[in-house]
Amino acid sequence: MMLMVARNLFFAVVFSTMLAIILSFLPTMELSQNGSSDIPVFQSKETVLTKSNLVDFLRGQSFQHPIRRVKWENGSLFIDFYITSPKQLNKKVVFDDFSKVLNMSFYSTTNVKQVFIRLINLSSESPRETMMVALSGDRENVRLVRKIPSKSDELKIFLETYFRLSYGQDWIKIN
């Protein structure tokens, strides 16, 4: 009886080991059939921006300033952010939002040729909306640049070097 239990236990261990070995080869066999042993885990997916996917594309971004207006026309992206209190303006946050737009436009899409970004003052103290700061640039401006800097001092210098920045009177007053 003891011999029979030992023999059954031995066959169970041998069978389980063989099954585990066979199952461990399945993923390898599947990869070799595809011709590649690399599994893409994180792929940078470039998007073709259109009027129909523009809202979804922007919704996937997290901006500090609310968006007032967006326009997509002939390879050009126009975005207006707004503020309601220029006294609480944080220039670093403005440049961070501009940087996010540039990153998503030039590094996450294939067809954005130009970007025009403005920050508009919608303060009740002002009789009409006024432009605080505006940025414009082409894809060619960042063609050789791999990454837009994230530090605020470097970012401001980068934006002033590679893009056209225009400052409104309200921005200059806050300086």
Core attributes:
single chain, 175 residues, alpha+beta, 2 domains, five-stranded mixed sheet, 5 helices
The tally of helices reads: 5
What fraction, in percent, of the residue positions are helical?
40-55%
Annotation, overall tally of beta strands: 5
The low-confidence parts are: 36-43
Average pLDDT figure: 83
Structure classification? alpha+beta
Give a quick account of the main beta sheet: strands, pairing sense, barrel closure: 5 strands, mixed
The total domain count is 2
- How would the global form be characterised? elongated
How much of the residues is beta strand, in percent? 15-25%
**Rg over C-alpha atoms, rounded to the nearest angstrom:** 28 Å
Order of helices and strands: HHEEHEEHEH
Q: Give the spatial strand order of the biggest sheet.
A: 1-2-3-4-5
Description:
Strand 2, helix 3 (91-107) and strand 3 form a beta-alpha-beta unit. With 175 residues, the protein is α+β, with helices and mostly antiparallel strands. The protein folds into two domains: 1-34; 54-174, no CATH class. It has five helices and five strands, in the order ααββαββαβα. It has a five-stranded mixed beta sheet. It is elongated, with a radius of gyration of 28 Å. The N and C termini lie far apart (93 Å).
Concise account of the structure shown:
By secondary structure, this protein is an alpha+beta fold. The chain is 42% helix and 21% strand. β3 (114-121) and β4 (130-138) form a beta hairpin.
